[in-house]
Amino acid sequence: MSKRRPYVRSMDGWWKKNPFYVEYMIHESTALFVAAYAFTLLVGLVRLGQGEAAWNGWLEAMKSPLSLIFHVVFLLAIMYHTYTWFKIMPITLPPIIVGGKKVSPGAITGSGLLAAVVASVFMLGLVWRIAQ
Amino acid sequence: MPDSQKIIEIEVLRYNPESDKEPHLEVYKVPFSDDMSVLQGAQYIKDHFDGSLTFRWSCRMAICGSCGMMINGIPKLSCETFLRDYYPNRIRIEAMANFPIEKDLVVDLSGFIEKLESIQPYIIPREPRSLDQGEYIQSPEQFNAYIQFTSCINCTLCYAACPQFGLNPDFIGPAAIALLHRYNMDSRDGAAAERMELVAAEEGVFNCSAVGYCSEVCPKHVDPANAVNINKTNAAKDYFLRFLSPKGGSK
Ligand code: SF4
Ligand code: FES
User: Which domains does chain A have, with CATH numbers?
Assistant: First the structure.
């Protein structure tokens, strides 16, 4: 008779067992903030469709102190999400060969972050001009 | 033993399938010198305290891939991890995570071996070729496309690092997919379409949620996470191309 009795360890609370997993859970959960903000903007769009009064109401709500605090929190969460998103980008892409050499992970993450900064500054400038 | 002899406490997760209901920790005080690896620490325990301590090893030079353990919770090759880097703190060694424990530090790798077989880890030529046609010619670019994925030593540290494998032991997992990718990327091979069935299957690449820890712990810089994620794209492409062409990859 076999004396084998392989022991299977529980996976309960696995993500708490290693700082790498904790960070993974944090960066994955910041995606919820991205979704929540997209939803906020969507509500704005719906209110716009409902006429001037509804739209102004939404604008007022956006200006409330609580909303401003939320905006800061959302901004931080989304910035962190952006950072980690580009940080794992190198593992998701096939090798990119430039001038016969493989582009380094750092260069991929760097260009991604740069693109995000440029796009954000562009949007900010655009909205600024419209607001003038 | 000289007075200046340094002693490190090694805490070992012990499990004897014949007498223990579940694993438990035991602490040993091990005298050590600066050139001693964690593996040598385990060997010291086996030689001086308890001959029944069970663990795998062979080469002692980070090439056979048999001495993987959780060292303070991190999957590492114990032969290239040094006691001096943990002293004066206690060091905890456990069997590799996510695998069933067979005895002490030895895990059951049979599932992994089956997975390795399942990906057809050999060149399946594009077309029949006779000896008098001579050798295959491969350009440096073609060689570079797969060489990184040949460095795997089957240590399975990447599986011990992968929570998705822990949650679903059927997941083919990082190293087997890296090897699959190695053959798919070889210009001599023509079986990528055959292997696609497994890539896109329930136990395939879509178990991966890009935690990325597998590539982090890999002692040979294989970057298995990269192989897995490239094959997500390949599987998605294959899926959509099937609507356009009747000769898509898997059935
Ligand atoms: S991919 Fe790396 S970590 Fe995984 S089995 Fe191969 S060598 Fe070990
Ligand atoms: S004993 Fe061979 S890799 Fe450690």
Answer: 14-131 (1.20.1300.10)
What's the pLDDT tens digit per position in B173-209?
Answer: 999 999 999 999 999 999 999 999 999 999 999 999 9
Mean pLDDT for B56-67 is 97
Question: Mean pLDDT, chain B, as a whole number?
Answer: 94
Q: How far is A52 from chain B (nearest CA, A)?
A: 44
Predicted confidence (pLDDT) per residue in A80-129, tens digit: 999 999 999 999 999 998 888 889 999 999 999 999 999 999 999 999 99
Query: Angle B94-B97-B99 (CA atoms, 0-180°, nearest 5)?
Result: 115
Does A50 lie at the interface with B, CB-CB under 8 angstroms?
Answer: no
Q: What is the pLDDT of residues B141-174, one digit of tens each?
A: 999 999 999 999 999 999 999 999 999 999 999 9
Question: What whole-number distance in Å separates Cα of residue B53 and Cα of residue B23?
Answer: 13
As a whole number of angstroms, the distance between CA A71 and CA A75 comes to: 6
Å between B167 CA and nearest CA of chain A: 7
Q: What is the tally of helices (H) and strands (E) in chain A? A: 5, 2
Contact yes or no for A7 and B15 at CB 8 A: yes
Domains of chain B: 6-107 (3.10.20.30), 110-244 (1.10.1060.10)
Please tell me the distance between residue A12's alpha carbon and the centre of ligand 1 in angstroms: 25
Q: What residues flank ligand 1, with Cβ below 6 Å?
A: B 152-158, 174-175, 178, 218-220, 222, 224
Helix B224-244 crosses helix B192-199 at what angle (to 10 degrees)?
A: 100
DSSP three-state, residue A124: helix
Residue of A6, A91, A94 lying closest to B210 (CB–CB): A91
The first and second tokens of residue B111, run together, are 């599932």
Nearest CA in chain A to B72: A18
Distance CA B229, CA A93 (A): 7
Query: With an 8 Å Cβ cutoff, is B100 touching chain A?
Result: yes
